[in-house]
Design goal:
It is a single chain. The chain is built from eleven helices and five strands; from the N terminus they run αβαβαβαβαβαααααα. Strands 2-1-3-4-5 form a five-stranded parallel sheet, sandwiched between helices. By secondary structure, it is an alpha/beta fold. The chain is globular, with a radius of gyration of 22 Å. It folds into two domains: 25-150, Response regulator (Rossmann fold); 156-245, Winged helix-like DNA-binding domain superfamily/Winged helix DNA-binding domain (Arc Repressor Mutant, subunit A, Orthogonal Bundle), CATH 1.10.10.
Length: 250
Amino acid sequence: MSQDLPATAASAADDQPTAPPAPPRLLLVDDEPGLRNAVQAYLEEEGFAVSTAADGDQGWAAAQELLPDLVISDVMMPRCDGYELLRRLRADERLGGTPVIFLTAKGMTADRIEGFQAGVDDYIPKPFDPDELVARVRNVVRRQERLLAEAARYADADIGQMARQITEIRSLLQLGGGKKAVAPVHHEFTPREASVLQLVAEGLMNKEIARQLETSIRNVEKYVSRLFIKTGTTSRTELVRYALENGLVV
């Protein structure tokens, strides 16, 4: 006997509104109360969920609890500055792939270079235009969402197909005489990023990598997304080719 819902009931179920997506979770770390409160209010008006911390130590504790989608941090702070906070984030198993924007009064080129070399995703010198800050925040959040979606797309992909692609890449490089980059390519990979890159190059999918490294698939997705950013690639195949061509994996 059919157990189908009456048409009116089915229609009512179809008409139920879909819950809106949760707003991006931001963590704002700055030791200036006035600026911190003003930026928090402005970002919340733009639809973000914002938590705050008064220095790097508080920011580190908050990040471990909140697991934010993005951290916005000042550089010059007491006890723990922005660089130390960034170092802790990048070394952490759960937070290593979290995007970070430096918001600081230091605006010299050398300081910006130091920030990028430390692994920051964007750098906004004070004073800044609030609309520019919002635009940059949205840009970093959307980029992270795209990279995570790209990484997740391969989580259940056919392992045999990926393994064949990697074998073809290795064969082509061998036929080309083991071609390497003209100049050595240096990347500041964390130990966990290097491990993930090696396993990706061996043809393992995210769920297999997660099992081998005893972590979650979500964490693997974050590490793969960080590797995309650091190598300038946009797909797993491009990442493997880049890593093999530049001697980043064996």
